[in-house]
Amino acid sequence: MLDADFFRRWMTATAASVDREAERLTALDSPIGDADHGSNLQRGFRAVAATLEKEAPQTPGAVLMLAGRQLISTVGGASGPLYGTLLRRTGKALGDAAEVDAQGLADALRTGVDAVMQLGGAAPGDKTMIDALVPAVDALGESFAAARTAAEEGALATTPLQARKGRASYLGERSIGHQDPGATSSALLIAALAEAAGE
Amino acid sequence: MKMLINVAETVVADALRGMAAAHPELTVDVENRVIVRRDAPVPGKVGLVSGGGSGHEPLHGGFVGPGMLSAACPGEVFTSPVPDQMVRAAAAVDSGAGVLFIVKNYTGDVLNFDMAAELAEDEGIQIAKVLVNDDVAVTDSLYTAGRRGTGATLFVEKIAGAAAEEGQPLERVEALARQVNENSRSFGVALSACTTPAKGSPTFDLPPGELELGVGIHGEPGRERRAMMTSREIADFSVNAILEDMSPRNPVLVLVNGMGATPLLELYGFNAEVQRLLTERGVPVARTLVGNYVTSLDMAGASVTLCQVDEDLLRLWDAPVRTAGLRWGM
């Protein structure tokens, strides 16, 4: 069973990973976006880690809701509302249970991903974070490690796609041939989940 | 790349402190990143709040003041502000007559302003929104994020600002803002990429002999790359792209806008070509504005925006305005 401490570890691991990979995310955002994805997420997840250190929410749902609110208040751009909504809605779906099992998390995360699709209007294949998150959620029933692999493969698979949402969409065909930075950061989030689970 | 900064993390805050020192007629909340005209809320007046990423100065903070915006929220460089900023701004300028959010069509701006509108309405502030999407370089379809908002933002903010200053109600100010956007089209070119403080190197690679046609204002490449052209050829391409999309029957406002690193000498020369073309195409020009108004950090290049106006819109355009970046008649 996964408790509040597990979810704090997930968020802390994400913050550490975004810190490590910020430059790579920004480099991916440079040819098709505006070269700030890494620095924006870094600012947001640092704030998440700092807040979780100060406040210690007692349930998994509360941890994710607090993290989501922090991201909305600190990131800006499209990433702030999208990642903020992902975590908030996932947290909300977890309710106020003190512990959840892996299947409960998978179901809640699916609710969160659906909310992101609705907010951003993106579907799989649009070259966005959805392309990493949807396969990850599908694989989560199997194991955390499988979800990590699915997210990473999903991110890599965005390279040949033409962007249809977000700033990269303004480039039309010129967005083809570049891996999507949002899908890449989503793969980091899922990898951190596997890390928190010790997989 | 050399920049006149301390560190990338404090660029926006440092600029806001400097702006506060230069403009005592503004209330600049550096910590929460909100710029408000000092006499807000003005009783009975609709509040106008705009915002977007930093790096486009004087947009938007430079357009706060009597006759234009009531408040602006600058985000990180090229990153939309967060909802907390907009809610704070709306609360600071609402006199009970409601607040209009002026939003450029970028996913981040749209999402954050949408969230802010919900939160502000929860606090009892009446909110209306207008989306600016004037860039003809981008195709607009169900399967894209739609056209970008660029130079027309200035026209929307000025004309809606004048209407609000006259005491017109929220629905009317909103309708005028929408009309100005619908009447406006823009096209931009880049002669160089720009450098964001966070990255420290050009956002894309543009060889010396080439230019990008159809760029936005975030240092992203445009829709097409070509060998460098003359000012006359660039004007032809830009104005034709706009006129393919609109056929003005009324006079137009012309904005020849610098992207940040193109000197006025070049912009005025470019404007001469734009005006020649408009004359040839039989498009009467009512007013022209030339300068750096909607910039993209240190990008070299220019954009052209045309806005078709009737007598009422022209009167509002001519109405007095007193801001850091635009000032006439008072």
CATH top-level class of chain A? Mainly Alpha
* Shape summary of chain A: globular
Question: Overall 3D geometry of chain B?
Answer: globular
At CATH level 2, the architecture of chain A is: Alpha Horseshoe
Helical/strand content category of chain B:
alpha/beta
Q: Which quaternary structure do these chains form? A: heterodimer
Estimated share of beta-strand residues of chain B: 15-25%
Highest CATH level, the class of the largest domain in chain B: Alpha Beta
The overall number of domains of chain A is 1
Helix segment count of chain B? 8
Description:
The complex is a heterodimer of chains A (about 200) and B (about 325). Chain A has about 200 residues and is mainly α. Chain A has helices at about 5-30, 35-55, 60-75, 80-95, 100-120, 130-140, 145-155, 180-195; strands at about 1-5, 100. Chain A is globular and about 50 Å long. The mean pLDDT of chain A is about 95. Chain B is an alpha/beta fold and about 325 residues long. Chain B has helices spanning about 10-20, 85-95, 105-120, 150-165, 170-180, 230-245, 265-280, 310-320; strands at about 25-30, 35, 45-55, 70-75, 100-105, 125-130, 185-190, 210-215, 225, 250-260, 285-290, 300-310, 320, 325-330. Chain B has a 6-stranded mixed sheet with strand order 1-2-4-3-5-6, sandwiched between helices. Chain B is globular. The interface of A and B includes residues 30, 34 and 119 of A.
Topology:
The complex is a heterodimer of chains A (199) and B (330).
Chain A: E1 2-3, H1 4-32, H2 37-54, H3 60-74, H4 79-94, E2 99-100, H5 102-120, H6 130-140, H7 144-156, H8 181-196
Antiparallel strand pairs in A: 1-2
Helix pairs in contact in A: 1-2, 1-3, 1-8, 2-3, 3-4, 4-5, 5-6, 6-7, 6-8, 7-8
Chain B: H1 11-22, E1 26-29, E2 34-37, E3 47-54, E4 71-77, H2 83-93, E5 99-104, H3 107-122, E6 127-132, H4 152-165, H5 170-182, E7 184-190, E8 210-213, E9 224-227, H6 231-243, E10 252-258, H7 264-280, E11 285-291, E12 301-308, H8 311-318, E13 321-322, E14 327-328
Helix pairs in contact in B: 2-3, 4-5, 4-8, 6-7
EC number (chain B): 2.7.1.121
Pfam family, one (chain B): Dak1
InterPro entries (chain B): DhaK_1, DhaK_dom, Dihydroxyacetone_Kinase
